[in-house]
Specification:
Number of domains: 1
Distance between the termini: 40 Å
Helix content: over 70%
Low-confidence stretches: none
Keywords: Membrane, Transmembrane, Transmembrane helix
């Protein structure tokens, strides 16, 4: 179903993205992530990447593929924003 190279690519890109806050934590006190923060964001990135990969493998119609991919990206960004700053005030953000 999935090509192994694509899945490895998703994990590699996720790791590279997670290096950004890890490196920033070494130089400033403005970024303070715990291990759980890295785990949650890693799971979100991997889930979004695998969902987009699945969409592109299964849907042949480019319009639906594009619209659903945009939906996955918007959902990812909304969840990320809620976890980061609690813009909606749900219990996910700890408010």
């Amino acid at each position: 179903m999935f090509k192994v190279k694509r899945v490895y690519g998703i994990f590699l890109i996720t790791g590279l993205i997670l290096l950004i806050p890890l490196i920033a934590m070494q130089f400033t006190d403005e970024v303070q992530w715990s291990l759980m923060d890295f785990i949650v964001v890693g799971a979100l990135l991997i889930s979004a990447g695998l969902a987009i990969n699945y969409i592109h493998k299964t849907l042949k119609n480019s319009t639906s593929r594009t619209l659903i991919t945009i939906g996955v990206i918007i959902l990812f960004l909304l969840i990320w924003a809620e976890l980061a700053v609690g813009i909606f005030g749900t219990p996910l953000a700890g408010s």
